[in-house]
Amino acid sequence: MVDVRQGYENNLPRRVITGRGASGRLAEVCRGRGWNRAFLVSDRGVESAGLLAPVAASLTAAGILAGASAEVTPEPPLTDVARLAGEIREAAVDVVIGLGGGSVMDATKVAALVASRGGAPADYVGIGRAGGRGLPTILVPTTAGTGSEATFVAILTDAAAGTKVGVVDPSLLADIAIVDPALTDRLPPAVTAAAGMDALVHAIEAFIARVATPIARGLALEAARQIGPALERVCRDPGDEVARDRMAIGSHLAGMAFANASCCAVHALALPLGGRFHIPHGVITGCFAGALMRHNAPACADDFAALGTALEWGALEPAAFADRLDATARAIGLRATLDRIVVPATAIAPMASAAASNRRLIDPNPVAVTAADAERIYAEVLHVGE
User: Fold this and answer.
1) 300 φ, ψ (degrees, to nearest 5)
2) What is the pTM of this model?
């Protein structure tokens, strides 16, 4: 826990609008801020789910829509984000709207920055390299998991290097985040499960991170209170609107929490594995959470008890808390998904080295994680083959 006597900083979205149907206010919100030319960013999944057309139609009817792209792909490559930035710049807009999951919102954040400030997305990879804000952004999540609408982190893919990279700077924070749980109602079960478990891991890691601020810890606990009773419930009954609402708000709070603390070793191990084998991010974080919390147990007994209580699991001992995370990953189908993927034994050591060298995520972890530790955990969790 941070020593408050030394001071701390928090960075949050400038405005947050929540509630079922809130996405229908986009045109009104733009007009209220004096934004008259909007560029709408999305992907084919959102389009095929029928979520893109109503938003585009409302912006068009208001005379605001000046450009659009539904070409964002999962784990967006730097080259794709550069192309998107060019389209935004050419449209001469004054606000960029990202409607989608984490990939769409991350691409929107970086493309809006590059469109305004110039250069290439690769120029901004790293921590604190934005140099100022880009075009204003409105981020509207259609999944309940990444919390990207609440963070100043964007994860992209460097296809040439075969790795995921991060753009991390408070300048990426959305001007407005609109959290409309109704947009998540038609999520496929597998996406609901993976995204929801990722939100849970965000809350846990934000709470235990060595750099967590008091505000981050409070947000993480409230996120846990929302997610705990809802995650398995919404996976069993996708039509449960109360559970959907709780997951949407819980994901958003967890995003604000880790943006003002950090993710930790679960995410450090997830990045090289996901970058190389293209496994859904939430599947990885969900399945690795138990093993990493066992590793963290010596430093986290009180925190795990507090989190267990917030999640309505009870004030569990560390081993039982880790076991419950494993059980949740099995109950919502994540473990079965990961078990179908065979990872070559030769991949373990390079991934472990990459994970252990990610100081942004390893240093905040409550217990040190070496490359040897990472190898052991990879071998324990993954289906390793020749």
Assistant:
1) -130, 15
2) 0.94
